[in-house]
Amino acid sequence: MSLRRPLGAGAVVAIVLAALNLRPGVVAVSPLLGEILAEEGLSATAGGVLTTLPVLCFGILAPVAPGLARRVGLERALFGSLVLLCLGFALRLVPGIAPLLVGTLAVGSAIGLGNVLLPALIKRDFADRVGLMTGLYSMALSGGAALAAGLTVPIASATGMDWRATLASWGLLAVLGAVVWAPRALRSTGVVAALRPPGATPADAVRSVWRSPLAWAVTVLMGTQSLSFYAVNAWLPEVFVASGRSVAVGGWLLALTNLLGIVGSFVTPVLAGRMRRQRALGVVIVALILTGLLGLVLAPGAAVLWVVLLGLGQGGGISLALTLMALRTENAARTSELSGMAQSAGYVLAACGPLGLGVAHDATGSWTVPLLLLVVASLVQGVAAWFAGRDEIVR
């Protein structure tokens, strides 16, 4: 009996809605970070810890996702992650540092599961349209980030809510996602074999992927682009505030970065899916990121131009990494294992970004050195993209 699910508009809408929920829980903290630090009496380093926790959860939970999907099925695992996300938003409403941290851990854990499960679902159900569906998926990721970056401060201003209630308001999107996925989870058979290659045990698949140099290239690509993305989303408004702009302007510039990320996120997988080798595409993406970062350091007055280039590059970077997870593998089982590896080790590396920038800012008193550290990370991303873009598959 075939394990493939019927395709249709409902499946596409469900995937896009789930993807929309994978960034607001993290990105919405950034425009409010100054207020959070001031109210709670925290330093920039502590703010780095707060913004690093969810990214660290992405890495820790990534290896758990394939096993969970094998046990209960992809649909049920995704539904469970959305329920956990709702719980995390609710916990952030409770006063005190401890509930904020626990809620942030729950949000990060839920997103960490979804990060791995959705690419595997796309590979399973849309194997002949991986580029298009990955484009829609990654476009929804950037769209969710853009909504959170651009609307968080206006929501707080329009409603008069404090930062806790404003953060929790994004939980309404998670509730909607859980409602949409509930009937799909109930219909799911939870077949274990859906994510297991013929003749192989899960342990065999994991060991072989972790021994592959190509898989490591994809992992470093995922890690470095994520490090840059989450560091920028955590601190870019504060960079602009330090240069004399208002918090609202900083939030809107961050939103502009993520809006342009939607364009890069959609175009890149479509182009990558038509190429045998994606090396040139990776070089162009990194060039955009490098130009944006160096522009912020050398000519901050032209901030709009630099965030446009940065957004296009970062949107293309995440979608290229996600697309390569599917293009460099032969089936959904292998995609799930490569996705688990790339997002586990990759997000552990990415967790150094927000925290590292906070520490560097506290140590130097400016944002120049932190931005230059991101330039170095982008150069490493370029090298990884060159090796990951060759025409091979993980065997």
Write the layout of secondary structure elements.
Layout (H helix, E strand, L loop, with lengths): L8 H12 L3 H4 L1 H12 L3 H18 L2 H9 L1 H18 L5 H29 L4 H30 L3 H7 L1 H17 L14 H9 L2 H30 L4 H27 L5 H20 L4 H25 L4 H19 L1 H13 L3 H21 L7
Keywords:
395 residues, mainly alpha, Growth Hormone, Chain: A, globular
Account of the 3D structure:
This protein is mainly α and 395 residues long. The chain has one domain (9-388): Growth Hormone, Chain: A, CATH 1.20.1250.20. Helix content is 81%, strand content 0%. It has 18 helices and no strands. The protein has helices spanning 9-20, 24-27, 29-40, 44-61, 64-72, 74-91, 97-125, 130-159, 163-169, 171-187, 202-210, 213-242, 247-273, 279-298, 303-327, 332-350, 352-364, 368-388. Helix 5 crosses helix 6 and helix 12 packs antiparallel against helix 13. It is globular. The two termini are 26 Å apart. 59% of the residues are buried. Residues 1-7 and 191-195 have low confidence and may be disordered.
